[in-house]
Write a structure and sequence with these properties.
The structure is a homodimer of 414-residue chains. In chain A, helix 7 links the parallel strand 4 (141-145) and strand 5. In chain A, helix 2 runs antiparallel to helix 5. Chain A is 43% helix and 21% strand. In chain A, the strands form 4 sheets. In chain A, strands 10-9-11-8-7-12-13 form a 7-stranded parallel sheet. Chain A has a 4-stranded parallel sheet with strand order 5-4-3-6. Chain A has 414 residues and is of the alpha/beta class. Chain A has helices at residues 3-18, 23-39, 41-57, 62-68, 72-87, 126-137, 151-167, 183-189, 205-214, 237-249, 268-281, 290-295, 324-334, 347-356, 373-376; strands spanning 95-100, 106-113, 116-121, 141-145, 175-177, 198-202, 227-231, 258-264, 285-288, 300-301, 315-321, 339-343, 361-366, 383-385, 393-395, 401-412. The first copy, chain A, has 2 domains: 3-221 and 389-408, Aldehyde Dehydrogenase, Chain A, domain 1 (3-Layer(aba) Sandwich); 227-374, Aldehyde Dehydrogenase, Chain A, domain 2, CATH 3.40.309.10. Strand 16 of chain A pairs parallel with strand 13 (361-366) of chain B.
């Protein structure tokens, strides 16, 4: 039997035991992992050095290499992340509602773990710890398939997790790593419906599309964010400037950063020169429509493709629109349904935007950058869902659960 | 462009308008359809007669032919079904919760339609009306792909729906039928991620598996039910007999009917002869394990495959188990995670069964036949989900919605 089937079977078995663990037992396991990671940081850093070295040999540099690299501080932060997960309330076992039918049946809707969660992700080894921690806390077994670039780091980390969980008397197979990082094995994993209940890809658009295209297991699509800020003719232009600067430049490489600025034509002359000057001063490249370029000489030409792009970089597309109707139409056409913001002082336009924009998070007078598990108050997140099924927006512990109906009878027949 | 892409585009456009319709407007549309169906019943029966004739020519008989056939009474019942949907509360627009963050942001979780729902189903033309009614009430556009056997009935019904909705000033494309019933077109539909948000197959195991295997659109798996009744050593045997008779024979062709009876060995001698005699008298074929056959001569041999089977017929597999541990293990291994029942007077065993059985609905001392939207009090259902993502168990109007976060700010940046 393949590595995957063996691991899948083991994970499924473990999931039944995990679903019955108390919150105290789960927290104890998480604590043991948090302690072991810090205690064995040298081991982790040693394994990570091999990954970093082979990445360098392949010519990887800059942000990618940085994301792969682990040090004491980063390991401590992974460990702290687990301590935060321990402090979150356990969603499992909550009876969300219970009602009595005329025939006397009492029907309750109870929160239960999803079962086995598969995570397919790219080079960041901290995802290994985050994802494992969240899955365990919600009572799920997890099968991790990280990228080949981080395989040594991931093997060591998952080894440490396994030992820690064994000490805490967890079932074997609660957290497993797919060690064969070939594409064929990834595709095999995407079709393991018998053992894996849900697949969550974490990474770039290419990875996510590959999982959506190949998986027969239910997938939660995460992450791609082509987010917009629309500045209405009735708005506080100082506020608007602060919001677009924050949404674009506070962390351009993340999915909730803004990629396109839409400006109402009635205030284009007043807003575009000042806002784009400020953004340019912050090293943002502007790609504008014709009207934008008439008002700001430094802008390059935006082509049709730019409206679809998630730059994840110091680049902003800018378009002058005739008003809120065109803004809504543009966003619903080109956006990725992640996070969208309007800046306005108009009550009716704020309501229309909230109602008519089809996205996970819709903002009035705030930066798109707030779409995040911590910022929303969920404490931690496994990703940001951009699909409409099951979960939308930041996914915390609740989104890693399902429900079942529990029915109390006294011999009722139909 | 293909029929499908045109219909998909139209549906997507319609979905934005539908998501903004008031409950009153949606109810008005449903009322117009309900009236039109009854008014034009001759037209429908005429079209249906063609379908019935070609089915007969192909040798279709019995239950299948019966399900395809429409008459005045059945059309009236389709129309009444719509009136019931009108009476249900509209789930769209509800703000499920709203909270304030330390930075002053107010974040609300609001119920919104899913968008465009695709339904792929088999020969029953009443599904056309049911599904359209539920989707519309929850603010969704719907693309229907029925089987070739019912194409004339479906064309006529969807034509009537379209006219009725036009009268009620609904957007064009709210309810559409895929008229090309080839397999290729069905597979093309399963990959129409750009326009269809969710796919719900309704039909037999073959259809559902084909959709799960081929679709790149998120799917809600419905329907396959290999349901069990476990009779514990501590139980009221009269109650147990009534429950298994009801679960097996009240409607054997539906997914919540029982397919396997598990009997605790401690009461096997007392229960098996009487219960299986009663079932046999009701024309139920028994397929038993060795111990069962020792206690009931009329039983045929059950082979390994029988434990996996959804007979949908007057057949019951029977197995003697050593107690609740083996019962739980058997059900979690062979069951389809639909509906499972224990008959017991033991508090601790009832709790263990509710906790450890992994299924959409778990019953203590009641028939599995209650897993149904009406019986649960949801008023109507689009199907019974056997997956864990998004919806589990009977899916009513709420399960045809998603959520979005609405965020009220005053210029907050991060």
């Amino acid at each position: 039997m393949s590595e995957l089937i063996l691991k899948g079977e083991l994970a499924k078995k473990a999931s039944y035991k995990l679903s019955n663990l108390s919150s105290a037992a789960k927290n104890e396991g998480l604590k043991k992992i948090a302690e072991a990671l810090v205690k064995k940081e040298k081991e982790i850093i040693g394994a990570n050095a091999k990954d970093v070295e082979s990445a360098r040999a392949k010519g990887v540099t800059g942000a990618l290499l940085d994301r792969l690299t682990l040090n004491s501080k980063r390991i401590a932060s992974m460990s702290e992340g687990l301590m935060q997960i321990i402090s979150l309330p356990d969603p499992v076992g909550e009876v969300i509602s219970m009602w009595k039918r005329p025939n006397g049946l009492q029907i309750g809707q109870k929160r239960v773990p999803l079962g086995v969660i598969g995570i397919i992700y790219e080079a960041r080894p901290n995802v290994t710890v985050d994802a494992a921690g969240l899955c365990i806390k919600a009572g799920n077994a997890v099968v991790l398939r990280g990228g080949s670039e981080a395989i040594n780091s991931n093997k060591t980390i998952v080894g440490i997790i396994g030992e820690a969980l064994k000490e805490a008397a967890f079932p074997e197979g609660a957290v497993q790593l797919v060690e064969d990082t070939s594409r064929e094995t990834a595709v095999e994993m995407m079709k393991l419906n018998k053992y894996i209940d849900v697949l969550i890809p974490r990474g770039g658009a290419g990875l996510i599309q590959s999982v959506v295209q190949n998986s027969t297991i239910p997938v939660i699509e995460t992450g791609v964010g082509n987010c917009h800020v629309y500045v209405d003719r009735e708005s506080d232009l100082d506020m608007a400037e602060k919001i677009i600067i924050n949404a674009k430049t506070s962390r351009p490489g993340v999915c909730n950063a803004a990629e396109t600025l839409l400006v109402d034509e009635a205030i284009a002359q007043a807003f575009i020169p000042r806002a784009l000057k400020a953004l340019s001063d912050l090293k943002v490249e502007i790609r504008g429509c014709e009207k934008t370029r008439d008002l700001f000489m430094g802008a390059k030409v935006a082509v049709e493709e730019d409206w679809y792009k998630e730059y994840l970089d110091y680049i902003l597309a800018v378009k002058v629109v005739s008003g809120i109707d065109e803004a809504i139409e543009h966003i619903n056409k080109y956006g990725s349904k992640h996070s969208e913001a309007i800046v306005t002082t108009s009550y009716s336009k704020s309501q229309r935007f909230l109602q008519e924009i089809d996205a996970a998070a819709v903002y009035v007078n705030a930066s798109t950058r707030f779409t995040d598990g911590f910022e929303f108050g969920f404490g931690a997140e496994i990703g940001i869902s951009t699909q409409k099924l099951h979960a939308r927006g930041p996914m915390g512990l609740k989104e890693l659960t399902s429900i079942k109906y529990i029915v109390y009878g006294e011999g009722q027949i139909r």
